[in-house]
Write a sequence for this structure.
């Protein structure tokens, strides 16, 4: 990392980058031809090409969002982004076959190690495509499909065609249109009826090149009575110019199924992270988003659940940490479309060093959805005077039988807490670290232990050298 | 080094302290040696808690005059956590709660900070078990969040548990007896007595009942920010019987 970059990011320890090497790299900028070229390169069926082109046209026409952080969004130069970069010709099943420099990156991120210890499967995406992919044999034998999205489309075109874009249509928003036009990589998962995948499967997304756009597309289908825990992590090098990460994630939980999707987003502070995530929960199904946003320049992401079947349940736990120069515009959306559906939303944010965090929430109960229950809790912790925290909750309640609770709080670290911890031998930074970890604990305890430890360490690092 | 030098731990000389411009302590003098238990008694507002807090280094208390020596060193510039690492301990009257931080984690980290190295997990578990049994504390304490939703008595037990684990040189115990029933008081007193031999203790209290169980070497009466009377354990008994009016008459 250069000196400048180091200064810009402080202790961001994933800010290293490898020499950029590519087998195919598109020129910067976007056009219909670029979209068609991506599709052709991937040998896609005609219908997918058509979806892409349609989405591209919508992207061009669609206005930028008029909310969130408009000034920051204006800073995106769509012409200065590389939309497709292939860094390896194949997706390997053995780490030893992954190109050496790329393998080294994932070694440094600890992925192969985690895979051996506690994961049921791993996909590692580098720039536009997966460079490594593997699933435990026993899962494969049970009929679990876990592939990168490109391979998923090749091997299961009918399944993809049936569900792709059904939860998040390309016209949902400008960035879902962009993703649909230029998507590459991501995960495709199908869990057969009644199968419980006990070990989490993980995807790791790494941007290495400058001015890169990463547009992974994930589609997870959990068939009746099945369950899955999917974990994703992401990092990028620190550059003085911006990169764009714009993913679309669609989850489908059939009757009685359960999907948990956990994210620890730790992009470097030059990445725009504009992601659309939405799940559908059918009868008695559960969709859970466990969503942590620590990095990025601007994140706009509101994991959503459509409670479509009676008795379905949504659980959204999210945390956001906004440090200097960061804006985390995050939140949650739940739509109660069927009777007796329930939801819990817990959002916790920390702002520090002039950072800004916003909670943007939507809770909808439709007229025919009798007997719904929902609880929303938003807590913000401010670590200094110059930081900022806002809450934008929206409620559309069309049914008077709904039982709703909403709590919100904004707090500061108290002098009493600091004095107490310091009287036990903790420096001010260490005391802050403890308080911050404690504040995020309702989130961290939901993560696999390895992630929780890593997240706590990250937050402690964020507190270091920051107190005047 | 400690063996060679005098066993003086704390020497407070002519201490004047203000909080937000209001004078609280007005020329307080006090010396505590290792192995001694000093009780400080006095009415509410006399400055008892201020003394404990200013010795520990609370930033809201301003020393306007006088000096605090700890182990022979003027500690005015010493940060709170450095005092703790150098063997000073304050048992809080109202300890802060730290939501989301489990007692077990907090204790392990605090012991690591004060000792300068992380304790070996196995040894530490053993140490913890012995200390908690001594205080009749259930293991389930360890997974609760620090002081959150604790009763007054539970808070005090957690303070004394830290006292046992941290084995300080100087222990400042700020109304550790308040809010305790007789059984809890006895347990807490036993805890204090178990460390008292190698520690200098400053016991702040309103009541004789703790001093029946933790025998002070010296009892001081604090009035208007000054020690106006010092004596043996009999002084505490006299205060219990007669109140503070006679002390006021002395000034």
């Amino acid at each position: 990392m250069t000196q400048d970059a180091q200064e810009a990011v402080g202790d961001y320890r994933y800010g290293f980058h490898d020499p950029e090497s590519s087998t195919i790299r598109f020129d910067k900028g976007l056009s219909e031809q670029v979209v068609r070229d991506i599709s052709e390169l991937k040998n896609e069926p005609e219908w997918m090409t058509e979806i892409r082109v349609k989405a591209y046209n919508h992207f061009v026409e669609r206005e930028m969002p008029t909310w969130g952080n408009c000034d920051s969004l204006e800073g995106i130069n769509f012409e200065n982004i590389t939309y497709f970069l292939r860094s390896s010709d194949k997706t390997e099943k053995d780490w030893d076959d992954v190109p050496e420099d790329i393998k080294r990156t994932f070694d440094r991120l600890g992925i192969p190690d985690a895979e051996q210890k506690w994961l049921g499967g791993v996909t590692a995406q580098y720039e536009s495509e997966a460079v490594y992919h593997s699933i435990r044999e026993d899962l494969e034998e049970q009929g679990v499909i876990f592939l990168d999205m490109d391979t998923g489309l090749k091997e299961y075109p009918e399944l993809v065609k049936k569900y792709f874009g059904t939860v998040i249509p390309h016209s949902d928003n400008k960035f879902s249109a962009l993703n649909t036009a230029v998507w590459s990589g991501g995960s495709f998962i199908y869990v057969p009826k009644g199968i419980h995948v006990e070990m989490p499967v993980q995807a790791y997304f790494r941007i290495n090149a400058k001015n890169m756009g990463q547009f992974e597309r994930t589609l997870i289908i959990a068939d009746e009575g099945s369950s899955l825990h999917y974990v994703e992590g992401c990092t990028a090098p620190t550059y003085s110019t911006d990169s764009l990460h714009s993913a679309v994630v669609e989850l489908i939980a059939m009757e009685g199924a359960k999907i948990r999707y956990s994210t620890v987003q730790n992009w470097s502070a030059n990445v725009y992270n504009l992601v659309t995530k939405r799940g559908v929960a059918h009868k008695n199904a559960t969709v859970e988003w466990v969503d942590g946003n620590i990095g990025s320049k601007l994140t706009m992401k509101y994991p959503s659940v459509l409670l479509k079947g009676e008795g379905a349940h949504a659980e959204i736990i999210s945390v956001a940490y906004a440090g200097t120069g960061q804006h985390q515009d995050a939140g949650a959306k739940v739509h109660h479309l069927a009777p007796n559906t329930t939801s819990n939303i817990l959002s916790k944010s920390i702002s520090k060093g002039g950072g800004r965090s916003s909670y943007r929430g939507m809770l909808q109960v439709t007229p025919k959805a009798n007997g719904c229950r929902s609880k929303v809790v938003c807590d913000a912790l401010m670590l200094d005077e110059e930081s900022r925290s806002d809450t934008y909750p929206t409620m559309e309640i069309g049914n008077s039988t709904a039982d709703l609770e909403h709590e919100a709080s904004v707090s500061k670290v108290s002098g009493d807490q600091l004095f107490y911890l310091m009287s036990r031998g903790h420096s001010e930074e260490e005391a802050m670290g403890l308080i911050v970890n404690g504040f995020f604990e309702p989130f961290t305890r939901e993560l696999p232990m390895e992630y929780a430890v890593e997240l706590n360490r990250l937050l402690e690092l964020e507190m270091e050298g920051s107190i005047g | 080094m400690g063996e060679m030098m005098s066993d003086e731990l704390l020497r407070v000389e002519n201490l004047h302290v203000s909080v937000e411009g209001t004078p609280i302590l007005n020329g307080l003098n006090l010396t505590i040696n290792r192995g001694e238990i000093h009780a400080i008694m006095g009415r509410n507002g006399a400055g008892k808690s201020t003394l404990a807090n200013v010795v520990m280094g609370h930033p809201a208390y301003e020393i306007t005059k006088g000096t605090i020596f700890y182990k022979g060193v003027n500690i005015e510039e010493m940060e709170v956590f450095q005092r703790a690492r150098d063997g000073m301990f304050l048992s809080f009257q109202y300890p802060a709660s730290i939501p989301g931080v489990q007692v077990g984690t907090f204790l392990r980290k605090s012991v690591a900070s004060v000792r300068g190295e992380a304790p070996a997990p196995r040894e530490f578990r053993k140490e913890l078990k012995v200390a908690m049994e001594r205080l009749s504390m259930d293991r389930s304490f360890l997974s609760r969040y620090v002081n959150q939703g604790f009763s007054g008595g539970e808070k005090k037990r957690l303070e004394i548990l830290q006292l046992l684990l941290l084995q300080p040189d100087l222990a400042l115990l700020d109304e550790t007896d308040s809010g305790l029933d007789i059984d809890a008081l006895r347990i807490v007193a036993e805890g204090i007595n178990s460390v008292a031999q190698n520690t200098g203790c400053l016991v702040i209290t309103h009541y004789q009942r703790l001093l029946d169980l933790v025998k002070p070497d010296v009892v001081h009466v604090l009035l208007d920010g000054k020690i106006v009377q010092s004596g043996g354990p009999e002084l505490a008994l006299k205060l219990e019987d007669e109140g503070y009016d006679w002390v006021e008459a002395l000034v």
